[in-house]
Amino acid sequence: MYAVNDSNFTDIALELFRYQAENNLVYSRFLKNLKANPSKVKHLEEVPFLPVSFFKTQQIQTGSWTPELEFTSSGTTGSATSRHPVLDLSFYLRHAERNFEHFYGSLKQYHILALLPSYLERNGSSLIAMMDHFIKKSESEHSGFYLYNHAELVQKIELLKPGSRKILVWGVSFALLDLAENFEIDLRNTIVMETGGMKGRRQELTRPELHALLNKKFNTAVIHSEYGMTELMSQAYSTGNGLYRLPPWMKIVVREINDPFSYLQGKTGGINVVDLANFHSCAFIETQDLGKTVAEAGFEILGRIDNSDVRGCNLLVG
Prior knowledge:
The protein is of the alpha/beta class and 318 residues long. The chain has helices at 9-23, 25-33, 54-57, 89-104, 117-120, 126-138, 150-160, 173-182, 207-218; strands at residues 50-51, 69-72, 83-86, 110-115, 144-146, 166-171, 190-194, 224-227, 236-238, 244-245, 250-256, 259-264, 269-275, 284-294, 298-304. It folds into two domains: 9-66 and 249-304, Luciferase, domain 3 (Roll), CATH 2.30.38.10; 90-227, Rossmann fold. It is 30% helix and 24% strand. The strands form three sheets. It has a seven-stranded mixed beta sheet, sandwiched between helices. Strand 14 and strand 15 form a beta hairpin.
């Protein structure tokens, strides 16, 4: 998969589509209900994308195998949660590591301070599995998780500032806001990574508003961001200004909101994700996120489609 590039992405994706159309029971039924013939699909834009909501009610699995575990979304009180069966946790962890290092370099360059209270307080989080792996792979005795012990986190950051390693503070949005509002701390030489997740705990802010507030409080020039989902095996990253970059094995297609088979260039619409790492589930996911592609450079997330369920790791309307 890591030999994927622009020249062969479509061929690999279409081959995977035909394989999943035959071997994924739920996806196969979905295609039959649409009267879609996989053998006649010759272009990526012709592939029907599976609505992400199916992960809440169906076992999305390609082939016959026993999951090592399930990743689950946090959801909201009383709402159904997504379930993503995982064949091999070690693959997910190695893949997430390579994905991060594709954009940021070796994990051994970093002290990783993870401020993720809402995720630590439940089981089945793919983000916690990834961060636990990153913390271990950083091989720093100072890397670790933080719940609500912000004072301890601030002390740790001040301790690490004189060192040669980079400091990466990876936090859920509401916890970063709490930190910013309760402590005066200069993070100008620190990477602050926001990963969504207001979960109704705070008044909603647009992403630009959130980042502007954090930049002001932390004395940073930009706030980084991670785009990931329970239903995906891969992540996209923004190094600032809300522009997400994709690894070679992912692609974004923006659909017309009222016509899922009509696609847009440079205009706002629904985000469809091709994630070739979803080999054992479904690689073609129709999300409920609003966004647009930005030339060939990446994409922006602008919010949620009206009336869609509020996700546990919801992205702020921008």
